[in-house]
Amino acid sequence: MLDVLIGQSADPPTQTRSSRNITGGTLMSVADEIVSLIDRQALIELALELSNIDSAVTHEAAVGQRIYQWMDEENFAPRKLGLFHDRFNVMGSLRGSGGGFSLLFNSHMDTHIPREQDLVHLDVNAPEYRKAWEEGDLLVGEGIVNDKGPMAAFLMAAKAIRKSGYKLKGDLILTAVIAETSHEPVDSEPGEILETKDLGARFLATHGGIADYALVAEGTGFGIVWVEPGEYWYKVTLTSDQPPFYTPYLPDRTTLAKSPNMIVAAAAAIAALEDWASDYQKRNVYRCLGGTIVPKAQIGGIRSGDHTRPILAPQIAALYLDVRATPKQDPLSTRDEIQGVLDRIGLTATVELVAFRRGYEAQNIDRLAQSVQRAHVATFGSEPKQANVEASSLWRDINIYNELGIPALTYGPRAATHAYKRALPSETLYQTACAYARIAVDLCNQDKHRA
After folding, report:
1. In whole angstroms, what is the distance from residue 82 CA to residue 206 CA?
2. Which H, E and C letters describe the chain, residue by residue?
3. Nearest-5° Cα angle at 442, 448 to 375
4. Which of 54, 110, 231, 397 is catalytic?
5. pLDDT in tens, 397-408
6. How many Å is the Cα radius of gyration of the chain?
7. pLDDT digits (tens, 9 = 90+) for 75-105
8. CB count, 10 Å around CB of 5?
9. For residues 447 and 3, what is the distance between their CA atoms, to the nearest angstrom?
10. What whole-number distance in Å separates Cα of residue 360 and Cα of residue 232?
11. Contact between 166 and 97 (Cβ < 8 Å)
């Protein structure tokens, strides 16, 4: 049992006149009756509708407007919160009767595959990146799995609660945010690239989008995760003190590291950094009850030379590293490690920290974690399994809330087809909505003044 693992149990939800169910029974039967009001077909239709509104990062306006409209139609008093008219977060609420804990559900509406051709994806316009559809018992599409399917699940869970006429004691907050998969302004003039994670959950939270607890609805295979790594982004610049040799005048080859061509020298840097990354992830594993972080690192970008005139040996090359880091790590020490790797193989290199977001382990998360556990058992008939290491080794918006002192975890569906086919079974999405409804009933009816 999770409450045994955690080491303490939350107080059981208190029954008062304002927190009794539709027929006067226990909170368990309240949740059962609310779950019976979740329209499975309407959930599928909403998930497909939202996922068929292409919302590649920086293009969230259309789906944001539709979510706002849906919340308005369903009487969730929506607000738009953002810096730009065409890129805004949406927040709705179901006000409680008072005295209970408030709960915020969060999902991001942006998808990470750009609309414009890039040098990462073979085909940025593949159907699964832009659309969603039913295929047998599967719901297919990038938006379905990341992250508008889980969003539709908590929206429909909230609709069922409102439709029931049952009054939660605490507020229920529904949020859809932009920029969770955002680029960052690296190597650009201020204002030149209007992209950053700061536009999304952080902006929403610092402008009123908070609650006592936050649940980020993303894929964990229904494991309960409350620790995630930070992101350290580094720029490694390699430089040569030799001229940009025209091809006929290249000196004879020696070693990769001693080449006057920084693209060639980068090959030596890449080999050394790959060895370092393999060791780095092994010696920095972080384990806690909320999950295990294996902090991996990779080179995700390289800039050098002139592809329209490859006749000169570039004197400069830049490598861009994404390094995941546990809550205990120091970005400056990691920078110095990388610098040492390059110094040892004789390269002239500088290492700069160009983006920094710390990872966090949630504090005071027991009450929410136990609500999730109880809801999971009621929905699936068994205890939640430990999430895969990958689910607790990536960045998600729980880090924003935990940084701000709002205990947050992530919990949601992730099928075997989630990654390679970008798909979830429709039944799994329905079960997700049922679990989210039960979580809200359980947590929001606990007496805050007795905590």
Report:
1. 11
2. CHHHHHCCCCCCCCCCHHHCCCCCCCHHHHHHHHHCCCCHHHHHHHHHHHHCCCCECCCCHHHHHHHHHHHHHCCCCCEEEEEECCEEEEEEEECCCCCECCEEEEEECCECCCCCCCCCCCCCCCHHHHCCEEECCEEECHHHHHHHHHHHHHHHHHHHHHHHCCCCCCCEEEEEECCCCCCCCCCCCCCCCCCCHHHCHHHHHCCCCCCCEEEECCCCCCCCECEECEEEEEEEEEECCCCCCEHHHCCCCCCCCCCCCHHHHHHHHHHHHHHHHHHHHHHCCEEECCEEECCCEEEEEEEECCCCCCCECCCEEEEEEEEEECCCCCHHHHHHHHHHHHHHCCCCEEEEEEEEECCEECCCCHHHHHHHHHHHHHHHCCCCCCCCHHHHCCCCCHHHHHHCCCCEEECCCCCCCCCCCCEEEHHHHHHHHHHHHHHHHHHHCCEHHHC
3. 145
4. 110
5. 999 999 999 999
6. 24
7. 999 999 999 999 999 999 999 999 999 999 9
8. 9
9. 18
10. 14
11. no
CA distance 437 to 379: 10
Select from 52, 216, 140 the least CA-distant residue to 424: 140
Torsion on CA atoms 114, 411, 184, 90, rounded to nearest 10: 80
361 annotated active-site: no
- Predicted confidence at residue 23, as pLDDT, reads 40
pTM above 0.85, yes or no: yes
Percent of the chain with pLDDT over 70: 94
pLDDT attached to residue 194: 81
Check if the beta carbon of residue 321 is closer than 8 Å to that of residue 342: no
Confidence of residue 421 (pLDDT cuts 50, 70, 90): confident
The answer to whether residue 171 is catalytic is no
Q: Give the whole-angstrom CA distance, residue 22 versus residue 30.
A: 6
Nearest residue to 71 via CA among 204, 203, 172, 219: 172
Handedness of CA 306, 311, 317, 318 (dihedral sign): positive
Q: Which residue is listed with tokens 């020696």?
A: 254
Rounded to whole angstroms, the Cα distance separating 265 from 242 reads: 13
Name the active-site residue from 180, 231, 366, 397. 180
